[in-house]
Amino acid sequence: MDIQTLTYLFVGGSFALYIGIAIWSRAGSTKDFYVAGGGVSPIANGAATAADWMSAASFISMAGIIAYSGYDASVYLMGWTGGYVLLAMLLAPYLRKFGKFTVPDFIGDRYYSNVARTVAVICVIFVSFTYVAGQMRGTGIVFARFLEVNVNTGVVIGMAIVFFYAVLGGMKGITYTQVAQYCVLIFAFLVPAVFLSIMMTGHVLPQTGFGGTVLDAAGNDSGVYLLHKLDQVVTDLGFTEYTEGSKSTIDVFFIAAALMCGTAGLPHVIVRFFTVPRVKDARISAGWALFFIALLYTSAPAVGAFARLNLIDTVNETQYTELPEWFYNWENSGLIGWVDKNGDGAVQMRAGAPFEGKPTYAGSREETKGSYGERVLTNAPTDNSSEVYIDRDIIVLANPEIGNLPAWVIALVAAGGVAAALSTAAGLLLVISSAISHDLLKKTLMPGINEKQELLAARGAAVVAIVIAGYFGINPPGFVAQVVAFAFGLAAASFFPVILMGIFYKRMNKEGAIAGMLVGLIFTFSYIVFFKFVSPELNNAEHWLLGVSPEGIGTFGMMLNFAVAFAVSRVTAPPPEHIQHIVEDIRIPRGAGEASAH
Amino acid sequence: MKEENARAYWAANLRLIFTYVAIWFVVSYGCGILLVDELNQIQFFGFKLGFWFAQQGAIYVFLVLIIKYAHSMNKLDRKFDVHED
Q: In this structure, is residue B40 part of a structural domain?
């Protein structure tokens, strides 16, 4: 069977599975819809959280980012896993004991204020929408590459699938499809990783192959450590040493903290812990989630290193006409571009960008053939000796081809990429729809509606959210790609401190919480907007506050939030007696019962 | 009595949290970021040690921390008689 047929078979098969699960797990009540009935086992919730958490970016881009930036990418590895420690110890068990449906629910009740609730709803919608637009686009791109439909058709197919199981099944449908999606995506990620590891180092586990010795062409142990060889090869070509960093320590520190606290504060992650039956399940479920995430996150750096070395070995100093097939295929889709600066017909990989921007062409491949058969670029070449642009996103997608793996592995990777994008999109859409139907309608604007009407409103809100997300997926506003990474900074600067203080500091009152949330959010938001949109030309370490980049500024916003909230709460009245009792109560596991609306 | 018990339980929980958060901080921010250059002088199998912490070790330690905390808390819940079911 050819790759195309296999891909249709794998992706189609996985869709049939998701739809089957959606029909089996229809939601009958608001409790089913918001928290999957509150009866999900900690292991299933861990797998669902992992799928929810790992987006198209984790699946497709992360290994590529690591391959290109080496040690500097560690901040993402630690930042996107370290948050689960905070969740398990500082947030999840207590929020589970509190036993409500959403994050604004907790903030509104703990701070006895509909203003606080509304601020939280706005934060939830803002953070989740920036995030979901990127996912829809990701789905479209994966479809486009593997199924040869255009990106917009891909987005529409993605919308239709998510529509089916999110609207029908709510959290219940999403939970069980996410478990299935986790299995698909982790299998799809690990199979090529294991193949590559065996091929390059003889180790079955990528995690140990990463620190192993390289095999030579004949398959004998060369005795040279992979990372040692990689360091040597890249420095010879003028790149920074792979295992050494180039970012300033303070910036790395702030970015890591923003990612960790942001992870712990992201509403679509937190609500997953409302679905388990008991407080102790919430604690261990965070462990399962991290275990499932770590399978991918400890393999990705190995894949990055293997791919980088493999890529240089295959491409550097090779005559263009003698390159492997995949090089020409990805050149066709505009993700590889080559300009023969020294006229020797061979491809030179060197530090620095070979030309300005991403590859652009005057016409189709046939119309723009150069002297070696390459696609001629219209980009202005730079004056260094670097000749080739290889988009980092192709590292994972092209790995099976680069490693000469069988066709079914390529089809599997396609199904995995789609699973990663769909599972994250669905989780985010549910958070948006429950923020609207539960927090805005039921708790603020129309408290009189009954359960049936609320369920209908939740489904309606999910439909609207999907349509809007789809619209952004088809017409991505320029800012989406830039802002997704900042969702973490905003979550760290707004939710994390108010939830934490709501549990650990009994004296925290509504004035402090609202002031802290607003200051943290406005400060972080303005800093990012200033450096990204207002004066992007000033976006460098010289102008940053204490040398902290917009990516790491959420940590600063978080500190401000803590400080302002504390100061304001000291000079205003303490929270009423019954709120202090609520805080005492959520600290004790007994009596958690089931998640309820009242 | 009941209130005292709750307070003692909470104090014990906070002690655990402080210990584990300290370890969490040391392996990620300490070994992976602040001390990375010093640790990189040490070879650990095929890795520089600081680099290994940043890309592998910290994640393994995080996982162990959560599992240890969940187990310790289950014991604490029983000891102070605040456990569920």
A: yes
